[in-house]
Amino acid sequence: MTTLNDSHRHLSPLSTALRLGALFGPTVFGVTAAGVALPEVAAALRADPASVAWVLTAHALALGVGTAVFAKLATSRGLRAALLIGALVLAA
Questions:
Q1: Distance (Å, rounded) from C-alpha 39 to C-alpha 50?
Q2: Whole-model pTM above 0.70?
């Protein structure tokens, strides 16, 4: 019988890198994609670009804090509960 720990021993470094890249890639695009909209946001708010750049900072900070909070939640309550709470927060 194969246990969960036994299956992790057979992951190659390439497989691990691909899995981590698949998880981390959307995060990078999520933060950097907002930068494309900054000039239009600045124009719509009649603000200077430096002030609007704080939007990216706030987004990156929320992403970092949210990742840590939901990782702890997934560890303590289980992945299903963390995903359900995350979906509810997103829907709200």
A1: 10
A2: no
pLDDT tens for residues 29-44?
A: 776 777 787 888 888 8
Q: What is the pLDDT of residues 10-36, one digit of tens each?
A: 778 888 888 877 777 777 777 677 778
Rounded-to-10 torsion of CA 55, 57, 81, 5: 150
Please tell me the distance from the alpha carbon of residue 57 to that of residue 52, in angstroms, as a whole number: 9
Specify the length of the chain in residues: 92
DSSP the chain: ---HHHHHTT--HHHHHHHHHHHHHHHHHHHHHHHHHHHHHHHHHT--HHHHTHHHHHHHHHHHHHHHHHHHHHHHH-HHHHHHHHHHHHH-
Q: What single letter denotes the amino acid at residue 82?
A: A
